[in-house]
Design brief:
Layout: H1 17-21, H2 25-30, H3 32-44, H4 48-61, H5 66-81, H6 111-131, H7 133-146, H8 149-162
């Protein structure tokens, strides 16, 4: 259902904010505000390195040029995977990469590890995040904004415009 200008009508608009985050971890990770709130939550749980590693891997996949890939791969390795890593992620031991693979990087070299971390977040932290004060308070403030008199009058103005 569209309004007169081909835009979805308000009853069929895509979910936004916390409603969208609550549908899947993928949706949460696609929204910069969602990532910010999830990081805030993970920081309190002492597991922020998981989302930071996942984000670094996503960024790494877009890296162009062998030299840049080598540098970024080494950075990811030293930050998250090395035994001396400052923000070491908890991945299965046998899937740890050796430093030698860093010489010949490819865009999906961290995929298996990234998938492990994604699943760890999806089946562990994400469900707790949806019950956390950080999420619930953000959801409440979103709902208050939507129900504010300003938002309602804007919606009424918009409906008058589209229904004339």
């Amino acid at each position: 259902i569209n309004d007169g200008e081909g835009h979805p009508s308000s009853s069929h608009q895509a979910l936004k904010g916390t409603s969208k985050w609550a549908t899947s971890l993928e949706n949460l990770l696609e929204d910069p505000e969602g990532v910010k709130r999830f990081r805030e939550f993970l920081k309190k749980e002492f597991s922020e390195e998981n989302v930071l590693f996942w984000l670094a891997c996503e960024e790494f996949k877009k890296t162009q040029g062998k030299k840049q890939m080598q540098e970024k791969a080494k950075e990811i390795y030293m930050t998250f995977l090395s035994s001396k890593a400052s923000s070491q992620v908890n991945v299965e031991g046998q899937s740890r990469l050796s430093e030698t693979i860093l010489e010949t990087p490819h865009p999906l070299m961290f995929q298996k590890l990234q998938d492990q971390i994604f699943n760890l977040m999806k089946y562990d932290s994400y469900s707790r995040f949806l019950k956390s004060d950080i999420f619930l308070n953000h959801k409440k403030s979103e709902e208050q904004e939507e129900n504010s008199p300003e938002a309602q009058t804007a919606a009424k103005r918009a409906s008058r415009i589209y229904n004339t």
